[in-house]
Amino acid sequence: MKTLKTISLACLIFGAAQAAVAGPIYLTSGSEPWGTNANIDNFDAAFGAGNWDRAVFGDAGVFSDTSDFVYIDGGDGNTFDFETWYNSNRSTVETFVASGGSVFVNAARWGGTDNFDLGFGATLTETGNYSTECTLTTNDFAAAGTVFTGSGCSHDVVAGAGFNTLAYSTAGNILLEKSYGLGHVMLGGMTTTNFHSGNGFDIRVNMLKYANDGVTAVPESSSIVLFGLGLLGLGLARRNKKA
């Protein structure tokens, strides 16, 4: 019985460490960009209703040790709130990714700052060219083809050194990615999917899943300690069994 109790305790400790990881987070202003629930519908389709969190600029704990993937939308009427918040939290976002997190920043802005600094060595520029055709450079997101169209599938273009291009329009690159430290970042200037053709919804869902898969499981310090205790417990159990 002593051996079984020791093993059970180790399993419980290890399970507690594993349970500390949170689900995806969608971060924007209090109101939805473009007055549509498109982003919410995208998240429900990608991860299932109730399996992700909606956060507002200024909320605490968004980039805590238990967060893993954060999608940030700064489009349309949320442009000013997005830029103000990002200017104050740029280093926090970079540190989160460098530590193993995944961030997808997407902002089809309305009246945004030229060459806005997104960190990670990248800038965002509103072109005034509301592209009606956007093209993927990868099949990772493909849904009924690699082209998605609409009344304006993107507003901004993204530029930076060391990035891979994932999508582009006639105005320039509209979605980039790169590894940063231990994590992964995606930067885009696309509109919400209510402006896209039929396959645009599924393409965005695939983008969110892809970004979430970019999370690196870097346990917080307390989890590392608990994991070590679990291994110690298993070791003691084996010694007791031999005795």
TrEMBL record:
Keywords: Membrane, Signal, Transmembrane, Transmembrane helix
Regions crossing the membrane: 217-237
Signal peptide: 1-19
InterPro entries, per the entry: Ice-binding_C
Residues of the Ice-binding protein C-terminal domain: 217-239
Keyword rRNA-binding on entry: no
Protein name: Ice-binding protein C-terminal domain-containing protein
Keyword Membrane: yes
Superkingdom of origin organism: Bacteria
Pfam families per the UniProt record, alphabetical: PEP-CTERM
